[in-house]
Write a structure and sequence with these properties.
226 residues; mainly alpha
């Protein structure tokens, strides 16, 4: 059995909880797509001076408010549980025979909150975890291991989600009682695009969590017999 100075702590429980939150995020985002498109059509009718009942407008506002609050709660939960799993995945590398990873478990989480660096450093940490978790990697060659394109797609979609979210947020900050229907229609369209991106992002994130977990478990099992 391999004599590791640091014990291996399975991340399956943290991964499972994070995945559940991502599925919740996917479900809410999937609901937001038709909801925001309904608002798009509603504002289009208002802009065209077509008849819109008070009940219809209040229903739209009520559903949007509820979904928005649920979406925010799930977003916070998703972020916390994902980072807890991400920390565990990085912290397990020494127990898996990789002791020279560039960034510490603390910075694996910390980089997500550093302006500018958060646009690329977390991806680099994730790629490092991916390579180091390869069951066939050795302490000498792990850095030269390939990274699945899935990781790049996940990060690209994540950045797209951040950009779309920022555009939506800035637009919402300009909304008041005198805002034109055309502006609100554009805002609804941006929110629909953002929700669609988040659906794709959740699917990719789940796949990455599961794959890294699979690789780490397999590597741990192999080392147990070395």
């Amino acid at each position: 059995m391999a004599d590791n100075a640091v014990a291996y702590h399975p991340g399956a429980k943290r991964a499972h909880i994070a995945v559940l939150f991502f599925w919740g995020s996917l479900a809410i985002s999937a609901l937001l797509v038709p909801m925001t498109m309904w608002e798009f059509n509603l504002w289009g009718r208002i802009g065209a001076a077509a008849e819109v009942t008070l009940a219809e407008a209040e229903l739209s506002d009520g559903i949007s408010a509820v979904l928005g609050l649920v979406d925010l709660a799930i977003l916070i939960g998703t972020g916390i549980t994902f980072l807890m799993w991400f920390h565990r995945a990085r912290a397990n590398l020494p127990a898996l025979g990789i002791t020279d990873a560039r960034w510490s478990p603390g910075w694996a989480v910390g980089w997500w909150f550093v302006p500018i660096m958060s646009l690329f450093r977390p991806y680099q940490v994730a790629a490092e975890i991916w390579r180091a978790s390869d069951p066939a990697a050795t302490p000498e060659d792990w850095r030269s291991r390939s990274v699945d394109p899935l990781l790049g797609w996940w990060w690209g979609v994540f950045i797209a989600s951040v950009v779309a979210g920022q555009i939506s947020f800035r637009m919402w900050m300009r909304v008041d009682e005198d805002t034109a229907a055309g502006f609100m229609q554009n805002l609804a369209l941006v929110d629909a695009v953002t929700a669609s991106i988040n659906v794709v992002g959740a699917i990719l994130a789940v796949r990455i969590i599961r794959e890294i977990e699979r690789r780490q478990v397999e590597r741990a099992q192999l080392l147990a017999f070395v």
